[in-house]
Amino acid sequence: MDANKSSSISSTNAVARARAADLLARRDRYRIVEALPWIAAIAAYFAFPNQMVLGSQTLILILFALSLDLILGYAGIVTLGHAAYFGVGAYAAALLITDVGWSEPISGLVCAAVVSAIAGFLSGLILLRYRGLTLLVLTLSTTIMLQQLGNLFRDFTGGYDGIPNLNIAPLFGYFDYDLYGHTYYLYCLAVLLVSFCVMRRIVYSPFGQALVGIRENVARMHAIGSPVHWRLVVAYAISAGLAGIAGALFAQTNTLVTLGVFDFDQSAAVLMMLILGGAGWLYGAFVGAALYMVLQNELAKISPPFWQFGIGLLLVAVVLLTRRGAFARLAKIDQHLP
Amino acid sequence: MPPVVNTIISILFDGLAWAMFLFIISVGLSITMGLMGVVNLAHGAFAMAGGYLVVTATASWGVPFLASLIIAFIVVGIVSVLFERTLYRQLYDASELHQVLLTIGLAFMAIATYTYFYGPLPQAIRVPYYLSGELHLGARSFPTYRVFLIGVGAALIAALWYGFERTNIGARIRAAVDNRRMAQSVGIDVDRLFTITFAVGSGLAGLSGGLAIQLLGLTPSFAIIYLVFFLLVVAVGGSGSIWGTLAGALVLGVSDTAGKYLFADAGSFFIYAVAVLILLIRPAGLYGRE
Amino acid sequence: MNTTTAPLVPALEVKDLQKSFGAICAADNINITLPSGARHALIGPNGAGKTTLINLITGALRPSGGKVILGGEEITSLSQAGRTRRGMARTFQVNQLFRGLTVLENVYLSIGERTSACNGLWRSAGREAAVIDEALDHLQSLELVADACKPVRELPYGRQRLVEIAIALAQRPRLLLLDEPAAGVPSSESHLILDAIAKLDSNITVLIIEHDMDVVFRLADRITVLVAGRVLTEGTPQEISADDRVRSVYLGERREVGRG
Fold first, then answer.
1. Engineering a disulfide at C101: which of A107, A131, B289, C105 sits with its beta carbon 3.0 to 4.6 angstroms away?
2. Which residue in A224, A281, A334 has the most chain C C-beta atoms within 10 A of its own C-beta, making it the best mutation to test that interface?
3. Where does the pLDDT of residue A324 fall: very low under 50, low under 70, confident under 90, or very high at 90 and above?
4. Domain residue ranges in chain A
């Protein structure tokens, strides 16, 4: 009797184990629905051929928001200065073209990514020792200082007038750029796709899981031996690198870079996009950036205050509706928190 | 008077005037943050609203300047209670990110509304004759308006000191800032305290908005442009502390003025550099507690 | 032939440990020595400083004076994470779990950090077979496998407490610090916790804070009594229960199972 009972318990256990392991293993499998944003992006290429400039800008913002999602949505660190890395990347790409005379686009992206990642790593080492209002003010201040430093060295950076005539060489030596931005759009889309796949991989890795742990309960993470500060610095550096790529894309496709890339408006906008779309599930960047750009385009046509009011109202509404567990909702876990 | 001494006096005087303004506008934000832990980025919008009220009162209704300031304080204070009861209530348990975004959203809505009704151009105001021109004190003359600003600041500090240290309600606010749960458990109505504090703080913001017209100019974007400065003051001073706000305002006000006097172009760098340095060493602010 | 046994290094030594918060002395000259494999209980009235002591031992608090020595190695200046990596694990008085994650993911993280699997940012978390298997083993020994895929916050409190213990055990600690493990657990579920503790490997040294004397007498071979931040006395359960000073300290305190 006992032997039967214990063997049935052990077989139930074995079944449960297998099921649990299987569920975990299948977590990062690509699902069909994930193709939607890309299909939509390609459809937009054919459906709105006159809106390619807007399209490229949207794709760049999606990448920028995506980079913020790693540190904000996954690791739970709130900053107001992410534009710093977007700007560093933009200027790195710009100076590569004008000062070094190197106009190959892809290596420009790589250079920008490396420079911003280093900037992120170094600043993260110091900044990530702080949280809350202190971190908000520190990140805000350092980005403003960076902008003002840029103005100080305006021989180098072109000041608030910026660096014009950023013309990149044809992609792979073959694809040239037309006036309407078609090639730019596809270029941005390809970069976004690659960057997205990299982020997705990181997010579903054990490291990504540790970031979520840090967000959910940092006290517990310390108690299980996690080198919390190092994990955050690495995540921040990656996040900065991706923001740098977005900045570089901006410089390359806009053919002009000004100190406006460091504006607080930029940091605030990308934060808003992420909240509108939802932080912590990668696709929030897509939804949020697209929503933001479409709204801006439509509402600002009526009048700029209309747009500002609209976005303000939307923010208030979104926060009121999601304040109990925005992260949970958007990480697809049920939202009835106690 | 030797030029160096002259410059130092100018820096100190202008720095003090700027510091007083920063104090008046930031003190409300500091106390509400310390009391309820709410990051209120719409604080600047209350200031902006107060400023426009003063403009309308003096220009369209013929109310004297000083009286308009008082009216701005009262009206903005009362209106803020409406916002507190409906929206800010929801933020007490919310994450900091949500607080930041909701209040930024409110600020945007406010800016848009005022742009619609008043237009985006700067508003002018005529200060009364006794506040314009210059005062001659000893060997130097100082802009009367700035002396006025310093005076208002000093009076406010005295009033706030008295209110906080010498009244019952002040004691209760201090207790609640120190330890909210403990205060609640001894029967202090923390919610009502917060409403009162929020009203006074926002009222002061409205007042400072009126004061700002002559000092900085007034457009709807005022709400966001100067937001950075009050955040700096509150963070550097330590949230929840009147003395902290004063210390923060003085340090940052004087550094900013010194920077602009001595280094012209690069001068606006200073206020941020000083803030960053202080926060790196004392993350909770000069008067903050861990 | 004569064989001399090498002196056994104590698993934990706390020497003259001090902690003051301004004028308040939360820990005053505390000395405790735990031999390897000990089952040691820490008791005392509320506010005696038991949790403070655990925090000092694990590194969540920095002492004002004194030393903490783990397995012969001084760790007083090490961080929490550093001490955990040297073989110390703890449970908290109030559960510190990853509430939005599943039970399996909770234990997974503990193992992942221990084995440094969490350094990997290019592999897939779901395919770390070794980590997953070990996590499932721990769940199985605590009879939590059925709940493996449920978010922790959906579990009843008693089972959540088991997850808390699973996370600590997944660290494969030499020293395990349990802060009121049965606290807040309904009496219908508390046997789960007690069985789990009783089953612990004899190689592991266990320090447990408890209020419930039944639990203490069942599990502990030695008891330290802490009152107002100071060690009042230390001894076997029999010695402690016969001690008048201990009785007077506890006079008026009712014994309840699971009181937090």
1. C105
2. A224
3. low
4. 32-263
Whether B186 and B178 have beta carbons less than 8 Å apart is answered as: no
Eight-class DSSP state of A315: H
| DSSP state for residue A259 in the 8-state scheme | G
Q: How far apart are the first and last CA of chain B?
A: 46
Residue written as token pair 């493996």: C148
Q: What pLDDT score does B264 carry? A: 80
**Euclidean distance between CA atoms A150 and C181, whole angstroms:** 57
Non-local (6+) Cβ contacts of C3 within 8 A are: none
From chain B, pick out residues whose CB is under 8 angstroms from the CB of A316: 87, 102, 105-106, 109
Q: Which residue has the higher pLDDT, C260 or A309?
A: A309
pLDDT-derived band at A270 (thresholds 50, 70, 90) equals very high
Residue type, B77: G
What pLDDT score was predicted for residue A321? 85
Distance CA B162, CA C4 (A): 77
Q: How far apart are CA A306 and CA A328, in angstroms?
A: 32
Per CB-CB distance under 8 Å, the chain B contacts of A306 are: 112
Question: Residue B66 and residue B213: Cα distance in Å, rounded?
Answer: 13
B276 chain-A contacts, CB cut-off 8 A: 138, 141-142, 145
Quick one: CA torsion of A246, A252, A255, A256, rounded to 10 degrees? 40
- Say what the pLDDT of residue A338 is: 23
Above 0.85 for ipTM, yes or no?
yes
- Provide the token pair at C103: 């039970």
Bridge-based pairing state of the strands C175-179 and C205-209: parallel
Q: Which of B142, B134, B158 is nearest to B17 (CA)?
A: B142
| pLDDT per position as a tens digit, B107-160 | 999 999 999 999 999 988 888 888 888 888 888 889 999 999 999 999 999 999
Taking only residues 203 to 232 of chain B, the set having a beta carbon closer than 8 angstroms to any beta carbon of chain A reads: 228, 231-232
Q: Where are the domains of chain B?
A: 13-125+132-222
Which two three-digit tokens encode residue C153?
A: 């916050």
Residues of C in contact with A281 (CB under 8 A): none
Between B94, B98, B276, which is nearest A141 by CB?
A: B276
CB–CB contact C120 A224 (8 Å): no
| More confident call, A224 vs A12 | A224
Find chain C residues with C-beta within 8 A of A207's C-beta: 118-121
Answer yes or no: is pLDDT of C260 > 50: no
Which of B26, B35, B98 is most worth mutating to test chain A (most A CB atoms within 10 A of its CB)?
B98
- B94:A142 CB<8 A: no
Q: How far is A19 from chain B (nearest CA, A)?
A: 35
3 state SS of C30: strand
